[in-house]
Protein 1
Amino acid sequence: MTTLSDPPKEGFQLSQLIYDTRYRSMTIQIVALIGFLVLIGWLISNTAQNLADLGKEPSFRFLSEPAGYDINQRLLEYDSQDTHLRAALIGLLNTLLVAVMGCITATIIGVTVGVMRLSNNWLVSRLTAVYVEMFRNVPVLLWIVFIMAVLIETLPAPRDFRGETPTASMSLNETVAITNRGVYVPEPLFSRSLGDVHLFGNSGLRFDVSLDLIAILLVLGLGLFASNRIKKRADSIQESTGDRPTTWYLRLGVVVLPLVALLFALGFYLGYPELKGFNFRGGTHLRNSLIALWLALSLYTAAFIAEIVRAGIMAINKGQTEAAAALGLRSNRIMNLVILPQALRVIIPPLISNYLNLTKNSSLAIAVGYMDITGTLGGITLNQTGRELETLLLLMLCYLIISLSISAVMNWYNESVKLRER
Amino acid sequence: MSDISFVRTEMLPEQDPPASEVGFVGWMRTNLFSGWVNSIVTVLVFVFVLLLLKAILPWVFSPTLGAGSLSECREILEGMGRHGHMAGACWGVISERWEQLLFGFYPNGSDGVSADLRWRPILAFILLAIAIAPVLFADKVPSKLIWFTALFPFIYPWLHWGGSIWGPVGALLGFVIGWFVFRAVEKASSSLIGMIAGVVAAFVWWLFLSGLIMGAISSVLPIGLEPVQSRLFGGFMLSILIGVVAIACSLPLGIVLALGRQSDLLIVKAICIGFIEFIRGVPLITLLFVASTLLNIFLPPGTQFDIILRVLIMVTLFAAAYMAEVIRGGLAALPKGQYEGADSLGLDYWQAQRLIIMPQALKISIPGIVSTFIGVFKDTVLVSVIGLLDPLGLIAGIRGDANWNGIVWELYGFIALMFFVFCFSMSRYSMYLERKLQTGHH
């Protein structure tokens, strides 16, 4: 029996694929997918055809061939007989080095400038505004080459340090030499070193890990952990009795004393740079290219971070400060307990994207000859082997992995400080 | 009982505030010397600024505009008793080379082969100002001008590269044909089929018919400008060309990508997310490497693409991914009620987007859009890395000249100043626009 309210039974008609909103989205998606696949297939077939015409089979065998070029600024040992893979690894570490250094200094400068822009001193807030606008509105590449030129043109040459009456002298009590070939700083050395661990044998990825460094990090970590426990204990005593025991000397001692003892046991001393012949020997040599890139990226990104910090602090309602003051909190406690936790929520997401930008901008190292991964893998290796497709694929993959890991870590942090809504 | 009470019966006359609280002195007391810490800071900063200006200003103000070489500059300065390598700037290099920094090697009639063609980029720049007026100052210019804005993307490259006028006309006709096919098919069936048919018709025209028909017309009616090779392009003309084209093309592309990323269609969404995250995850310079070495390999064998065109494609894709994220932010910031309201009015998807969603979402994202524009314009200097002669790329050539060997700061200063003027005015404009479009009650 059929009732009046039953819908008329109709078979599926082809026109429903277009007119019926239930099926239309399916149609659109399939059309889009087919279009996308056709595009990809077209590109791949073109590429295969072109590569075959050029006689280049796609292969990654070049990675195990000797690179044949030198890399002057490096974190691991490397010589020109090493493979292209090793050169790429050195480059990757250089990229990470300048990115990490840049992120740290950019954050410090950026937060300082951002707070100073909110200063009630007119001169300070104007000056920082000039700094921010000056750096934000000029391309970062221009800043990099400009700072490189400043370092090369204005600093004294190593030969100026020589002779009876040198025109230049070393700074900081004769320990740091600032020259137009780079900065020489004292290097940490150990007379009773524990030696190194060699990982990955003799392959292109071989990696020496200093046991001294591991020991120091271990002791430092344990010290910080113990200090944290002492703080927790003090917190719980304060909550139960209302009195907070004085613990700062304990917390300091538990970190510093074991570290000093360890450094003494390892025979720690500083190797100072010395002028030998026409150049400095000893110490750690930070090349101009690294310093120029690091300074330019830090100053440029700091200008953006300053604006983010300023916006974050200004986004917090004035009522929050007043309410905290009404509760009797002191001004530094208001900042730490009320303003900052809220401002951080506004500040963190754009801060993440600025760290990402800094890391990606570090690829401009190629303009000053700093050998980051763009300079090794995407520069000399590409030109020597003529493997554009493979090297650029690897290069993009490296940057993608770096970017995605930074955003994953930062998103995790962002999640942990997020406002828990009911 | 003595009367010791006192009651004032008339008001005291109003007094001026103390002289230390108003005017310049009062301003100084509140803003510069409000406490002893602040006073010390003020004095220190003041001394710092003074020292900075003392170091820079004598260098900037040096009467060397007429000098023909670096040694001539030094002679002028030594004649004034100023010695040392920071004695003064050598502005002669700017007065001699500013045309090159603006136009690169665009034909200026000096080689005797071609005429002075620099009027074309200048005209293009002036037309650019006219074309963006209806967008930037919508309430101050006649609204009919928007038609010129629509035509401008076809005129702009043509003025730069020259060649037959029928090329850009053919490209434009593709859009016109696509639009008419869309309207005709939409009336007969549905808007979805209409859209597909319109796109197909336009592509058929561009790929197969346009070349033939426009070739025939141009052999009958050869109207055109003298063609200019891409390798002659350079200077700020090149920066502005790349910036303008990338910005103009990335906005519609970015809107499409943002809508795709927000849509319920899983496959479309996945494609858009993949594209956006890939582009945003790699530096622009790797994309420029792709443009300079790989893009020809991706295309049918034998295709030879102009290097500037390849760079334009990659920069546009790059900008579009960032633009998409900015617009997605605007879409996400709209209250859900706006979408539901549009649905309840019975609008379909495109009507809702065009009439309700996009005007509001774009308004919210204006600051982000403008900062993306500024970023793209600044990023155009990266093309110097792959050998194009943008202002930064021209520096090496200028320093290679025996007359100007050893010049450093003047060129960087000039280029930085030009970029600063462009970018700073763009950011100020964005602030003005934000205030103008503010319709809330704040």
Protein 2
Amino acid sequence: MNTSDLDGRRVGLYAVLFGLVAFYLLPLEIGLVTSLKTDPLASLPFAPPAAGSFTLEEWGRAFTALKSGLVNSLLLAVPATILSAGLGSMAAYGLTTLQWRGQVGVFTLFIAGIFIPYQAVLLPVSRFWATYAPLEEWLAVLWLLPGLEAYHGELLSLIITHVAYGIPICTLLFRTYYKELSGEMVEAAKLDGATAYTIYRRVILPLSVPMFAVTLIYQFTQIWNDLLFALVIMGPGDGAPVTVGLTNIGSSLTNLGFGVKMAGAFIAALPTMVVYVLFGEQFAEGVAS
Amino acid sequence: MIDRIHEAVRARGESEGDGDARTDGGTATVADDDAGSFFGSVSRDFLGSLPFWLPPFALMGFFVYGAIGWNFALSLVNVQQFNQPNYSQLDFDQYLRAFGDPSFISAAQNTAVLLVAFTLACLVVGLLVAILVDRHVRFENTFRTIYLLPMSLSFVVTAQFWLWLYNFDNGLVNVVTQALGLGRYKWISNPELALGAVVFALIWQFSGYAMVVYLAGLRAIPDEHYEAARVDGASTLKMYWRVIVPQLKGATISASVVLMVFALKAFDFLYALAGGFFPPKGTDILSTMMVRQAFSAGNRSYAAAIGIMLFLLAIAIVAPYLTYQYRRGEL
């Protein structure tokens, strides 16, 4: 193999890699330029808007339509993410660092929970919140407080639902991590007579910071992106998160409103995109395990 | 739930005889005998661990296993709309109904096609891209980050992008096919093309995931294996096929399980594509059919039965995987 042959191969390799960049990014580029055009049908889809046809109007319209959804998504995703990561870490600690026989069995029940199709639980879950635990009614007195509305009760049900179904994956992520932690510090703390709680707070939690980053990013993306639970548990009411709002923007199978659809898609995706660009490494680690 | 815990505790107590010699992790002030007097001779480590895993377990168990049980009960009766189910008469009628229902059969077929085509294509694309990225390229992290980006987006978002890409008049896909002299197609509204179009869009979104998993697998293979194959004079292609790919078995298995589970969850994408409970003709899968039957048609028991069948399908995919992981000591 001589050098020019090698160089040729290298050039080919990079050409393919950049071709793939185009493949993965082109849909986003097209979406972006389309959202800025007055008439998306007038020019090639990937061409930037011509001088006379540039507009920010679609972004304005999309933002007005999705504003309340963005707030709701934030109110939903932030607490649900933190709670599921915290509970996952606790469960993993109780099933990994503290060792007892039979824990693999319990852990398997956690893991199986990652893979269940939500269609198998939708009817009971929606029924449970609607009939057996109507938080909106139970907490009625709360909605009199300034800043709180009745639909926050529905958001609370959605938060609890997401936490419950997020616990399995969080537990798995933390357990994989805790298995690799050195047992020496835990043993030393035990010899000092530390309780399980002290060991968790003083030894395990401080060591968990990198894994919390991974889990929080993964869970935030999952919960922010979800449509199914939001649709079934709350429907398109005042409390609907941004994904529900986005499905109602523009009309689906006609040519109308592609500009506003694209702008809306970007607005709805912006938080997860920002998180991804800032913490891509952690996201990759989260999905790879 | 509580019963199961008592059972677990009892089982634990019985098997305690040959007890392990681990030191106590929890309540160091309580003597072993104290802990044992109530629960048999349960180790204090077990008791100490309860406050940590039991609350998450109870919450998760109620919503996962409790709900599946409830859903199963619902599938054994016949309840429409918001009527109260009558649990005195239980039968499998809803399951029989499914197998006589042409729309169920076609949804099941579409689900199978989606599962197999999407998973295989993602694995192949992901493996090829991973091999390319693994060849010590510059800006490797940037390439990887870009290829994985679509996966961080919501199904609802990517559905909007692909609706536009597949647009008949000015979508990129038709611009390309026309430039190649193949003409234009109604990718979404033609029932014969729609499922393929959906699979392609999902491959765009998730092949990056397969790449990341394979990349981790490739990194775990020691350099000597490449060297040894090269010394033997194997061509690059042969080396990968004979030496490297067989060592990626673990990565292939875990990636395919996760991809299949994603495919079962493709509901969000199809709902967003159509903007409602009726996905484009030719793309109805079991997950969309279940939600439509439950929340639009009001056939709750029928929907519950479809949900249970989806659950069994997921179990059939995941159980062998979990057994495999368990045998390798990775649980």
